[in-house]
Amino acid sequence: MSQIAQTAQAERVSAHVLGFPRIGAQRELKFAMESFWKGQTDEAALRATGRQLRARHWQAQAAAGMDYLTVGDFAWYDQVLGTLALLGALPARFGLDAGKLDLAGYYTMARGNKEHFAMEMTKWFDTNYHYLVPEWTPELSFDGGVDWLFDEIAEAQSQTQSHQVKVVLLGPLSLLYLGKVKSGPQHKSDLHKLDLLPKVVAGYQKLLARLRDQGVALVQIDEPILALELGKEWLDAFPPVYTTLVSAAPPLLLTTYFDTVSEHADLLRSLPVAGVHLDGVRGASQLQGFADTWPQDKVLSVGIVDGRNIWRCDLDAALAMLQPLHDKLGGRLWVASSCSLLHVPVDLADESKLDVEIKGWLAFAMQKLEEIVVLKHALGGNADAVAGRFAAARAALGSRRSSPRIHNALVQKRLKAVTEADAERTSGFPARIAVQQQRWNLPAFPTTTIGSFPQTPQIRQVRAAYKRGEIGHLDYMNKMRDEIRLVVEKQEELGLDVLVHGEPERNDMVEYFGEQLWGYAFTANGWVQSYGSRCVKPPFIYGDVYRPEAMTVGWSRFAQSLTQKPMKGMLTGPVTMLQWSFVRDDQPRSTTALQIALALRDEVCDLEKSGIGMIQIDEPAFREGLPLKARDWKEYLDWAVRVFKISAAGVQDETQIHTHMCYSEFNDILPWIAAMDADVITIETSRSDMELLDGFGHYKYPNDIGPGVYDIHSPRIPNVNEMVRLMEKARGVIPDQRLWINPDCGLKTRNWPETYEALAHMVQAARKLRETTAIAATAVNAA
Asked: Are residues 516 and 383 in the same domain?
């Protein structure tokens, strides 16, 4: 009898976690990866760091009282790419041998090189994590690849004899669904993803059989696509796929998260798996319905501790939700995190400088492990042993609810005064763009960048010294002004048409603004992986948001004084400020977003008054906020558009509003993007070879648009002809007079030599395009 069946029969509630942050509390994996990429260390050193982190995280799970050690949640860059490497399903264009893949080859797929574009990257459902998109072609093989997972299992098994190993795998149907069919000279574009299913299932069969032979007690097989509105062909695939897989596999716990899956209850009850996991945070309403009719031979795992936010769990409320489920299910009820803890920081214990009262309101990954186990003990008849933990949680929640920090009377008064007119510009786009063209007199295909320039070690050292109090404010300001002066000079040398100040003073596009807004708080070590080695330290919003004074005006005004060319003011938009923060859970997200929008509106108006005539309000997370089910989109999109427009609409027609979006599919929400009514939108398109732009053309997007021609997440520098080719594709769907040229995103992660070379190519590409425009115009005039 399997361990999963034994624990259910023994009526003992089990605790587990769906995944743990892989990057390390001090970003150890990030620094090890980057050192390897720079050639400063070898693969052996990088692998040693990985082993140390995995051992530390398993020890933490064991010490907390988890019943299973979760293995397979570690990844050298991304779990989807790791799954492809495990199955051997590597994109053929890289020419890599899956069985002999080393980390250098693995990172080539993730980051690209001089010969190859990196794999496309996009958001993992509605999170701020990015995954690498599988490339599906007919000839792709799933016959097996690297042994890295099996080595990790052996590590975990050798570390403890008292805990069972649970392996995490991305499920076959979610893997297929999240990929893209690629067309090209060697393969046809009429391939359907499900055409590959027999190959995929055969690959998973081999993999699961090997896991069984290695003594794995349980496989957590993630099928997050069940939280989406799936077509019938996808839903119909689940029964035969899992009937085939279970025959040679360890017990399978099919895992769903990020939303309710109640519409699939009959399907999930019928699948021949050992159990199912449900998100009890985002799908609390589904739990009782599942429990009432749950099969006697299956475990029901309930994710009751939030894996996506940092607020302390209300243990009383969680226990009240779990108790009736336990009364029905007994030991067949398991307690878990709602999803992987990948999305939260590692350990609150590292926050020695955080305000004591606010710190008491929070729980990071380590604390969430403890919360899960406390609930397990309370359900298992050990309530007295954890009574102190319940009392502490109760006191912290009471402190948060009653704290005077939460509400601001000025903000509440302003919210009530907002009208629909506050969301509208004075004139429509055709009238505005005519005034703006007259003011700026820009050439065809105007060139610009997205905002940030390389954040050199020197810049970071100065910021750190200022933060530590080692240099004064005047010295700091002068050093930052020197960096701005350098950036402006280089842009003038390059011949860019619209300049930026480079953002040397900004640590992060959300953190920088949050530090200057009331209602935000910050951690010292609350790092979360965004992709690869890119880590962010999201602020958290605990109270009403208010701007006490201007945040960017001084820097932008100084930068504009250095040039006669237009200088963009750079702001992060209200939706992105919301999405890339841990958000308070005591009021609607739309209300918090509106508070941020009003604060940004004040900044936009102050920039205009100071002489800044172009203002970019970045919204890279706009699509990320979409609910997973399309039926819920309109409510979100309506308020998201409204708060953006409120942030931007306080200026005159001649002031040009830009926005930027990246690494998302936009085609299905283009009416709302158009409704944002930004004068210029810049988007990421280079990795998709301008594929993302097609929808804008079909929709006849009415305003100006800048498709990215340079993938800033790759060290690869495209040449002039490549950029021209991309823009020629863009010209096929967007009129010349509406096109700008720019990189995909900000340049803060790149170095100066590659940045300068890439931008020089971009300017040359624009000049070539202008020549063809001039030729075409001459021909028309002659005719």
From this structure: no
Active site residue 264: no
Single-letter amino acid, residue 259: D
Write the CATH number for 446. 3.20.20.210
CA separation, residue 546 to residues 15, 569, 580, 706 (Å): 41, 20, 18, 32
Predicted pLDDT of residue 775: 52
In the set 277, 501, 713, 761, the catalytic residue is: 713
- What's the token pair of residue 290? 């599942």
DSSP summary character for residue 630: G
Q: Which pair of structure tokens corresponds to residue 274?
A: 């050992």
Residue 522 β-bridge partners: none
DSSP state for residue 421 in the 8-state scheme: G
Calpha distance 489→441 (Å, rounded): 21
Strands 614-618 and 275-279: unpaired
Q: Are 407 and 543 in contact (CB under 8 A)?
A: yes
Q: What is the pTM of this model?
A: 0.87
User: In sequence order, which ranges of 620-680 are alpha helices (DSSP H)?
Assistant: 633-648, 670-676
In a domain, 411, yes or no: no
Contact (CB, 8 A) for 69 and 165: yes
Residues forming a β-bridge with 16: 336
Q: How many domains does the chain have?
A: 2
Please spell the DSSP secondary structure of 505-524, one letter per residue.
T-S-TTHHHHTTSEEEE--S
Quick one: 139 and 276 in the same domain? Answer: yes
User: Pick the residue with more confidence: 698 or 54?
Assistant: 54
One-letter amino acid for residue 708 of the chain: G
Q: Same domain, yes or no, for 16 and 124?
A: yes
Residues 608 and 720 in one domain: yes
Residues 324 and 462 in one domain: no
Domain coverage including residue 218? 3-402
Does residue 494 sit in the same domain as residue 378? no
Of 347, 380, 402, the residue at which a domain comes to its end is 402
Q: Which residues pair with 68 in a beta bridge?
A: 164
Residue-wise pLDDT tens digits, 392-403: 999 999 999 999
Put residue 607 in one of left, alpha, beta given phi > 0 → left and psi -120 to 50 → alpha: alpha
710 and 743 Cβ atoms separated by less than 8 Å:
yes
Per the structure block, which two tokens stand in for 187?
């393969």
Residue 308 lies in a domain: yes
- Residue type at 378 in one-letter notation: A
Average pLDDT value for residue range 496-525: 94
Distance set, CA 647 to CA 85, 138, 277, 424, 573 (Å): 44, 47, 40, 10, 8
Q: Are 312 and 459 found together in one domain?
A: no
Q: Is the pLDDT of residue 115 over 90?
A: no
- In DSSP notation, 390-419 reads HHHHHHHHHHHHH-TTS--HHHHHHHHH--
Q: Cα(23)–Cα(529) distance, rounded to whole angstroms? A: 7
What is the residue type of 477? M
Cα distances (Å, whole numbers) of residue 664 to 7, 203, 688, 765:
43, 29, 11, 25
Residue 414 lies in a domain: no
SS3 564: coil
Q: Which of 309, 345, 354 is nearest to 25 (CA)?
A: 345
How is residue 138 annotated by DSSP? T
Backbone angles phi and psi of 437, in degrees to 5: -65, -40
Which among 361, 381, 402 is the end of a domain? 402
Asked if the structure places residue 115 within a domain, the reply is: yes
Instruction: Give the alpha-carbon dihedral of 126, 305, 526, 540, to 10 degrees.
Output: 70
Task: Verify that 186 and 55 share a domain, yes or no.
Answer: yes
CA atoms of 122 and 119, how far apart (whole Å): 10
Q: What is the pLDDT of residues 542-594, one digit of tens each?
A: 999 999 999 999 999 999 999 999 999 999 999 999 999 999 999 999 999 99
